[in-house]
Every structure is written in C-alpha cells, then in structure tokens.
Q: What sequence folds into this?
C-alpha cells in the first residue's frame, strides 16, 4: 500500500468520524473531487497546499495526514441535525453561484436554521405551492 493511499484512508476516516462526506470536505476546501481517487488508485500525493487545507479543516497536523503518527486533536462531535443543516446549506451555496460563499460559512447554526426557514417560506409562497395546498385541502 502506498503512502498516498494510507493518507487517503486517514482523510476518509477523519471525515467519517466528523460526520461529513468526503465530497463536502473537498468542496469546502475547494479541492478537486478526484483527489481521493487519485491518491488511492494512482498513488498521487497531493500538494502541500492541499494537505494543509485538509489538515486545517480537521484541525490536525499535516504530519498526521502523512504518517498517522501525530495524535490528532479530536474534532468536536457533530450534532446530526447540524450536519444535515450544513449539508443543505452546502447545496444552497453551490446552487446560487452569485452568492458570497464565504459569508455563508461564517453564519452561526441559529442563523443557518433561519436561512433554511426563510428558503422554505419562499418556496411556500410560489404560485405552484399555493395551488398544491388548495388541491390537498390544506388551505383555509
């Protein structure tokens, strides 16, 4: 097994233990989605810049990613509801290309919940949504 594939395994394990997908990690770090595949199948080691972004994301050292010998600082356990909200927000961030993505990342969890409530409210105000309510007998 190559050092690159060992590193990929550690990255995948950190993602799993943190409750996020590898895809979300790569999107958040603005790294190509093929990174893990390239590490596992082509033994391609990512640049120091990419490793540093991943290490910072998980709050571990690059040494840990490369060798597994540095004890990582345990990332805080994620509340499943928060993980779901973050997942939905990530989808929104990338669906709206004109949105300032850095601003979304700085929101508190309460603010993220409010954003989702507002989006759901907006969806409920669409003419087709109101028509469906009337058909189902939910309208007053």
A:
């Amino acid at each position: 097994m190559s050092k690159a594939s060992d590193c990929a395994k550690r990255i995948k394990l950190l993602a799993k233990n943190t409750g996020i997908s590898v895809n979300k990690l790569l999107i958040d770090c603005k790294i190509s989605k093929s990174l893990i595949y390239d590490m596992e199948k082509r033994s391609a080691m990512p640049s120091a810049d990419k490793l540093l972004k991943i290490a910072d994301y998980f709050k571990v050292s690059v040494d840990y990613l490369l060798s597994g010998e540095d004890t990582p600082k345990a990332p805080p356990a994620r509340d499943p509801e928060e993980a779901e909200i973050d997942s939905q927000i990530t989808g929104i961030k990338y669906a709206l290309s004109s949105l300032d993505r850095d601003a979304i990342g700085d929101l508190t969890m309460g603010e993220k919940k409010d954003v989702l409530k507002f989006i759901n409210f907006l969806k409920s105000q669409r003419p087709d949504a109101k028509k469906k309510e009337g058909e189902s007998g939910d309208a007053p």
Summary: The two ends are 65 Å apart (CA to CA).
